[in-house]
Amino acid sequence: MHLSRISLYWTRLLLSFVVVAAIVPIVPALADGGNVYKPHAGRHVSASEDLRSVEAPATSEHAIDNRSLTATPSATQSGFVIHATFDSSITGNSNAAAIEAAINQSIALYESLFTDPITVEIYFRYSPNQPDGTPFPTGAVAQSNYVIYDVPWSTYISSLLADSRTSNDATAYSSLPITTLTPNISPSGPGGRAIGLYTPPSMFANGNIADGGPYDGIVSLNSKSPYQFTRPPGSGNYDAQTGIEHEMDEILGLGSYLNGLPKYTDLRPQDLFSWSAPGTRNHSTTGIRYFSINNGNTIIVNFSQDPMGDFGDWLSASCPQLHPYVQNAFGCPGQYSDVTATSPEGINLDVVGYDLAPALLPPGASVLANISTRGLVETGDEVLIGGFIVTGTTPKEVIVRAIGPSLPLTGVLADPVLELHDATSALIASNDNWRTDDEAEILATGVAPTNDAESAIVATLNPGSYTAVVSGANGGTGVGLVEVYDLDQTVDSKLANISTRGFVGTDNNVLIGGFIVLGNNAAGTIVRAIGPSLTSQNVADPLQNPELELHDSYGTLIASNDDWRSDQQSAILATDIAPTDDAESAIVQTLGPGAYTVIVSGKNDTTGVALVEVYGL
């Protein structure tokens, strides 16, 4: 059983999010003469008052016919997929678009990070009740239920070694214990499948476990709790996406066996990389304990040893936190983060069997990927125009999306229309309402729009320059989002030199660009905000003095600029793509792998058409 709460730190007048865990075994009926994996149910409850006053209901025990667990899977697939099923408590909610968007954004992030050919089945809920229909305990804010399997030690270790794909794996597996520490290792269902074991979904929508259950786990958000589904969260709100990612990590398999003591003593996969000093393992709740993949020589992050917290989560500082990681045992309102390839969560998932996508890149390579820009879509020159370049020698498969109704904002573009053009301005494809064209192909990408009025195009593009144009059907206007996702990172062609032109207003109507740096190393970039020089392109109302900000995935400001010659003039000139007008802005920055946001606004709240650009150097 996993329990968690929100604890009030009166001395700092700050709320903190706390996770506490334990495991309740579900004892199956044994198959005659079979060597089976025993499944267990885990539960995670988040509460807003002291844990001692919140008692999670006992989990019913259900038998599983384990004869089905020894079968051989009959089908394979080519990519990592998280399949979300939305409960009616979400689809029937007036805020359904924002809730689904936060969930889909989390899913898209994981699907971009990992390449294991498995499908993870998660049932998502937003309700005042738990999956079995009983109300959440007083103060509870969230819950996840999931399936864990007992796998014999030798079977698990040999499967893990056979699945080695990345440099992290090579380093971590060289420090695996030579002797058996516990009879079994207990991965989650998806964690077992990621290394080739047959650990199928076994959970039903009410949280019961039985043969044929369609889900690996359930994420339930308490609809009475102070979650915010847009970023950045307010000072008194918890970021929903961070919470969703935390619960998804639990279902994927992060967690320690320490939460199940004394009843359950088999190690979880994460416990294989728990240390107290170089060469010294620590599988106890006393002393220092940290996550390391090189025999304990380098501390990646400390584990929480707080008995009121989850022993599988990270040790957390007081609020506000310098590193508000997704798996922190204590989270803070007003802060947020994501799982990345180089975050402790990403590294941990990598070494317990999930295959990071950057392992498929050439050694040392870093590229830009999964680009997006949000802005006000008007008419004429003030539509939203996204440009990108496909580099390399082979075709690149992408999906381009035009999002409007599902944005959690007021004044959104109700019915976006999307066009994709090549470098000669020739129309390649267009779409209005994504289900009207290539619905099956779009669904297969795993990133289909969540509203039927939104638009999408899947295309395989030769190297060259391309433009995506977002406008409103029948001259409609409002805030829209144009996105380009890289669907095949295995080929040598990459997305590069990203730009979007749109109208810059004020408040929510500024121009916001997003991009991801994928790879093993940092990437040199220049970000530009262009305005006055657009007059030469016959743009009637250019933004006369654009200001530029660059933020990391936590929302932290990395750099800002107003008038490019005022900062980094030499570095900007050295790129050979300095802006041509001194009132325009630019930032040169070396960025590590992760997600970044660029914001373009007008000085003194001025408005007009601007261009935001990101170039790889």
Main pleated-sheet profile? 16 strands, antiparallel
State the end-to-end CA separation: 49 Å
What is the mean predicted local confidence, pLDDT? 80
In terms of structural class, how would the helical and strand content be classed? mainly beta
What is the total tally of β strands? 32
Summed up, the helix count is 9
Low-pLDDT windows of residues: 1-35, 46-77, 359-365
> Strand-residue fraction?
25-35%
The percent range for helix content is 10-25%
The geometry reads as globular
Rg, Cα atoms, Å: 25 Å
The domain tally reads 2
Question: Could you provide a short overview of the structure?
Answer:
The chain is mainly β.
Could you walk me through the main structural features you see in this protein, from its secondary elements to its overall organization?
By secondary structure, this protein is mainly β. It has two domains: 2-351, no CATH class; 366-616, Jelly Rolls (Sandwich), CATH 2.60.120. 13% of the residues lie in helices and 34% in strands. It is built from nine helices and 32 strands. The strands form four sheets. It has a 16-stranded antiparallel sheet that branches. Strands 1, 2, 3, 4, 5, 6, 7, 8, 9 and 16 form a ten-stranded mixed sheet that branches. Helix 2 (96-113) packs across helix 6. The chain is globular. The model is unreliable at 1-35, 46-77 and 359-365 (pLDDT under 50).
